Amino acid sequence: MAKMPQNVMEMLNASPILPKVLCTADSEGNLNAVPKGTLYAYNLETIVFADIWGYKTNQNLENNKKVAVTVFSIQMLPAGYQIKGTFKGFETEGEIFDTYAKHVKEQINMDIVSVGVIKVDSVFTHCLPEPGVQIA
To answer: What's residue 118's pLDDT?
Structure first.
């Protein structure tokens, strides 16, 4: 398990409008990449996302726990990161659920079904000066 650098966490948590993408794969390896504005760093080793209407994503996560998350910004200084991780499951109650249900309601005025939990395995850069370098 890896720990996200602080700047990666800050980018994930900075804004619901920054482009964030969650990539999953089905049991045959067919990829599915979807925008997921509700991806947030819960702590150094954990990313969470709100399950609002993730039918295909959820099906994939039942069969293949490996995921990739991308977040990037082209404003000011271009920056971006890819976080590879392992899906740990959905939570429908408890501290994580309550915190993010409230957060999503405040940010985008939507109710959530559950909160997906991802454990961070590795982190890579997307942009210059060293694209593709593993940083965690």
So the answer is: 98
pLDDT, mean of residues 27-41: 92
What are the residue ranges spanned by the domains of the chain? 6-125
Strands (DSSP E) contained in the chain are 20-25, 31-35, 40-43, 46-51, 66-73, 79-91, 114-125
How far is it, in rounded angstroms, from Cα 52 to Cα 61?
A: 15
Distance CA 121, CA 111 (A): 29
End-to-end CA distance of the chain: 9
Q: How much is the pTM?
A: 0.91
What CATH number matches the domain at 6-125, 3.30.70.890, 3.30.230.80, 2.30.110.10, 1.10.3720.10? 2.30.110.10
